[in-house]
Amino acid sequence: MDKLMLDCIVVDDEPMAANLVVNYIEKTPFLNLRGKFHNAIEALNFVSENPVQLLFLDIQMPDLTGLELSKMLPKNAKIIFTTAFDQYALEGFKVEALDYLLKPFDYAEFLTAANKAKKWFTMLESSSGLNTSTESDFLFIKSEYKHLRIKLSDVLYFEGLKDYIKIWLKNESKPILTLKSLKSLEEELPKNQFMRVHRSYIVALKSIEEVERSQIIINGKRITVSEQYKPDFLNFINDNSLS
């Protein structure tokens, strides 16, 4: 893991600001600079042909903003925003930026953000090496600019709340909150362990304690199985019932 190198680019329409980030990158042993761009369109063209892992990305730029660019990047490219405006912090969270550097920032602040990126890619590399099966026994969940490793065996159920998900875990009184849709999460979960039973709920099948008519009881919580998902749930019950 000590040999991990992250290919990165700098995107900033202010030459002085871009040069400062370049200087910081060159001081950082695990960062490999692949390019410097003064507009987002040039950066997008480069990334489409030359995959990079990390972008140090300004937000306010002409023609195409950093936020707009962030939504067009490949899924495996991560972002550290560099901006003079703090009102974009929530938007940065929504596009799953690893960090948010507020100008002017010094090398210590830059290195803290870069180390977050290193930690993220190290965990990603570790998880791909540890899990040889097609189904993992954990997920990495982003919550408040942190990436938390959650064991699937600890999950009771997922509760959708507009653009957010509450993750309810065993032996925890408060849920973990993450910005993600329930639909996208459903696609990532192993089908033999989790089932969508309602527009707002995905349950861990092993956590079901009782089924009472059209309601599932998990840790004292009653969750209604809606008509749309009832056939699949009844098949699961029948397949796991004593004849």
Folded structure, characterized:
The protein has 243 residues and is of the alpha/beta class. The chain folds into two domains: 6-130, 3-Layer(aba) Sandwich (Rossmann fold), CATH 3.40.50.2300; 138-239, OB fold (Dihydrolipoamide Acetyltransferase, E2P). It is 31% helix and 31% strand. It is built from seven helices and 15 strands. It has helices at residues 15-27, 40-49, 66-70, 89-94, 107-130, 182-188, 230-239, and strands at residues 6-11, 31-37, 54-57, 78-83, 99-102, 138-143, 146-151, 155-161, 164-169, 176-179, 194-198, 201-204, 210-212, 215-218, 221-224. It has a five-stranded parallel β-sheet. The radius of gyration is 21 Å and the shape is elongated. The chain starts with 5 loop residues before the first strand and ends with a helix.
How would you concisely characterize the structure shown here?
With 243 residues, this protein is α/β, with parallel strands linked by helices. 31% of the residues lie in helices and 31% in strands. Mean pLDDT is 86; it is low at 128-135.
Mean pLDDT: 86
Strand runs, count: 15
Number of helices: 7
Structural class: alpha/beta
Q: Indicate how many domains the architecture comprises.
A: 2
As for the CATH topology of the largest domain, it is Rossmann fold
Named CATH architecture of the largest domain? 3-Layer(aba) Sandwich
Report the biggest beta sheet as strand number plus sense, adding barrel if it closes.
5 strands, parallel
